[in-house]
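Figure S7 source data.
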Amino acid sequence: MGMRLPSKCPPPEPPCEPSSLTIPTESEKKKREFPPLRPPEDYPFTAKELAKFDGSDPELPVYVAIKGVVFDVTWNRTAYAPGSGYHVFAGKDASKALGMSSLKAEDCTADYSSLNDKQRETLDGWYKFFMKRYSIVGRVTQN
Ligand code: HEM
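Tokens for the predicted protoporphyrin IX containing FE complex:
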């Protein structure tokens, strides 16, 4: 994939939304094949540990957490590598930003209590999208 976001992002219209991403056209279906999901693991990551898996080290897997659940996005690491548009989500729980459709680092926090109902729906959409696409390797612990 290696997609970079266009410079004028986020867009004025509904941005990149999970629902639109889950309805591929026929021609897109081939591109969207991904490795089979592994059985979920329950490793407890601290936020600090999780930060190591932000795609900076090519030897390490890449993780993204949503609502405290850690997903292994390694097979799609180009999307989350340094320099790519979604690197901001890597190695952390980015729940709030995903709910807000924000790519700002300051919005990438695990605490999403400020989200309204609509934004919580968006967040849940991303959670479902990741559940279908990426294996669960653990959860984020308090310290
Ligand atoms: C102009 C604005 C944007 C465009 C054109 C765009 C486009 C795309 C495209 C083409 C994909 C790839 C889907 C795929 O191949 O599976 C994608 C994935 C994604 N987008 Fe966006 N997007 C935009 C803005 C945003 C914003 C503001 C967010 C903030 C939440 C966001 C979050 C994501 C996420 C989390 C993925 C999933 C990456 C993955 O496959 O793991 N996007 N976007």
